[in-house]
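ok so i was messing around last nite and threw this chain in just to see what happens. nothing serious, just curious
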Amino acid sequence: MIRRLVPGFLALFLALPAAVDAQTPAGYRMRVDASTDVNDPDDVPEVTVTTVANGFEVRTGPAVMLWNPANNATGNYTLEGTFTLLEPSGHVNYYGLVYGGQNLDTNPSYIYFLVAQNGSFIIRHRANNETVHDIQGRTPHAAVASMAAGGAPSVNRLQVRVGANDTQFLVNGQVVHTAPKSGMAANTDGVWGVRVNHVIPGVRVENLRVTPGE
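result:
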C-alpha cells in the first residue's frame, strides 16, 4: 500500500514514483492532482494504491493518474480495462482510461475516457497543466453501469478503439461515442494508464491492456 500526504494548498500536479512500495504495480508512476476548488475540496488527504490479483485498487484523496512509462501505444490499437466501483463518492466523480500520454511528469498531454457512479461518461483532452478541453461532455448512457441503491459495486468494462480515421469509445461492449481522428482527438500515440478522480473510496482496476488494431 502506498500513502501520500498532499497539502491542501497544493495547486499543481505532483509526479510521484509509485514503485517505492512492493504492493503497487511494478514500474508504475503516480501523478497527484490536488483540488484547487474551495467548494469541492479533497476531504481525504491521502491516495492509497494496493495490488490485487489482476490489477490494483485505488482510493482517493486527491485525484490521481497511474501509468507505466513502458506502456506506450501507437497507430491502431484497442486499450481496455475493467473498473469496479467498490464504494461511491459523496458526489459524482469519474474514473477510467488514459491514453496518448506525453510529458506526464512535467507538462502533461493526454486524453481520458471516464465513467461515473451516476451512469454518465466524459471524454476530455488535457493539453497541459492548466488547460482541459471537452471532446464529449458529461453524457448519461444506458451502457454505463451506475451504482445501485444500497451501494452494491458497479462494474464497467471500458475500451478505446483507435482506428485510422476515428476513435470509438465503448462501455460494456457498446459504442457510446465516436470521435473523428482530428483536432484534439488525434493525439492517440503515447503512454496509457488510468485516472481516478478525487474523493472516491474505492475503484478496482483489472485486466488493463492494449492489443494491436487492424
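not much to say yet. The domain at 2-212 is CATH 2.60.120.560 (Jelly Rolls).
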